[in-house]
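Human: For the file, kindly provide a plain-text protein record giving the amino acid sequence and the backbone structure tokens, at your earliest convenience.
Assistant:
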Amino acid sequence: MKKLKIFLGLVVSLIIGLSMSYLFRQDNSHFDYEIDPKYYSENRSSFENDFDYAFDTLEKYYALFYRNGTYDFLKNRENYKKEIKNLKTDKEFFDKMNRILEDLGDGHTNLLDNNESYDMKETFVLSNKEEKGLVNVDLINYLFGTKISSNEIINKIFKESRAATKNLITQDINNDIAYLKIRAMIDPGTPDFEEDLDLLKTYLKKSKNKKALIIDLRGNGGGNSAYTNFYLYPMILGKKDFKDTHEYILFRSDEVFKYDPQYPELRDSIKKIKDSDFKYLEENIPFLKKDKNMMDDIRKNYTHIIFNPGLENPGEFGDDYKFNGNLYLLIDEDVYSSGQIAAHFFRDNDLGTIIGEKTGGDGIGTTPAMVKLPNTKYILRFSHELGLRETESMEESTYTIPDIEIPRKDQSQIPSNDGCVKKVIELEGQSK
């Protein structure tokens, strides 16, 4: 799962929770999801109709064409459509469409299979249990239906939500270096998360006076950024203030908000862009000063914006788990979404040394928008936001570049054989 990050003091996550419709009716938002009859045309196959619906949706709302350099994706529409025309089964359509969508170079844009859809629904239920009234009721009911009661889903999650492999691994590299590996940013409130939190508290308290702590995020594709934003980092930083990192989230149309699962939560933060806002972005984001073409694209194609002032440290853990030594972060190209959020945070706050490979990126924004294809009923999720940070380059805004590069060939899942861990030992003046 990808992705969550809370704005204005809350976690705005890649996935928000769902309860059932009767729990949400206090929300005043209401959207109509009636689909244009042209997408049921008998002159084309159901797959061609769904293809057109998907491409029309992306052409209107998709936010990353310029950033990813993928405007040719739209130009190739008719060539792609030829690949769809003679398909026979829904599964063939699913596989072909996801291969086509891969050309966008965006891990947040794809069709969801049935298991992914159900997993997402489960996560919506859990999140809503914590924060009711913050999801787009009409969209969630439309996408997932309400046949299973929220209590039944929650009970099912708590029975089945046991990780096949440990999500959090703790290990002493030697007497002076502690090590944490986080495989995924799992959701607070689940049994797996509570297990992680108990282990984290025990290990950090035991290790707080070691000379160095390694946080290994390699392979972490994301999930719920609350894992690091509200737990790991506040624990290891104690009462230290976080750096106020400004981020900007841009949208191409206010129409897309009806497909945004988090719209009720974000509504008060969204504003229509004025000329003065464009000028502010150009003056305050260094790489936009140099990239006139991107700034022109933003002025032409984006209509609404969120100004995110950054997170604050609530200080609820005090200094009970504060780490007093040097910090190291290990990253690779598989660090993505909420994993990238954690990498951004580490770099922005100058917490220590980053080692490994450039990340996979995309750590700015909220849960992707979602539509349901009219005929096959597959859910298309897609990036409807352009995230910007106050960095010198667009690459730094999107990815995290390591301070010390250790290529994949020199890395290992066994810490004692791993080039990144060996580099930490070297930097700390240690021997095995």
Notes: Residues 1-27, 146-164 have pLDDT under 50 and may be disordered.
